[in-house]
Design brief:
The protein is 71% helix and 0% strand. By secondary structure, it is mainly α. The model has no long low-confidence stretch (mean pLDDT 92).
Length: 204
Amino acid sequence: MIGRIAGGLAGASTAVGAGLVLAAMEGRRFTGYVSEAGVMTEPGSRTYRFGLLLIAGALLLLAVAVRPETWVATALLVGAALTTTVSASVPCSAGCPLPPYEESTSGDLVHAGASILGVGLVALALAALAIWARDPWLRRLGRVGAGLLIPLGIAIGVFILAVGRGQATSVLERTILGIAVLACIAVGARTAVRTPPPEAAPVG
């Protein structure tokens, strides 16, 4: 019962948090980095950070929800929640400059590193569900989510190193974040309605 409640709350919190981040972005829906909405001088910076904190809380709830399936996904989601909290707590400077083509501050590197690691841990958690989840729907969701996020994550890393800031990088970043959000909502919704066999021990 606790897992089902946590899953429902996780899905709802993810949706609300993502909505707040989107609202904070205002005129930069398809330009620049998403994190630019959290720069301290931006009017929507508080909304952005609160949205990220809601997503961090949702990831913790999701960790509770998938605990009956596998410890591995649980641990990875806890890590994702912590790194997302760091991302919300350490804003980047104006423009969120990233190497190798821009000069970055230590805050920029911490924020970017935490953000990238957070999404990466979500992708790995989905991969863990794809391998070890006992629920067939969670295995499917894990395969689809990880199957999209992992290659796209590699692609954006190549784009940042090869071309830096640009329209393609912006669109790819938003695509990755959108998939991660939808995957978390879907996993939360599934854990809210499924009833795991109580006699079976979690795998992984």
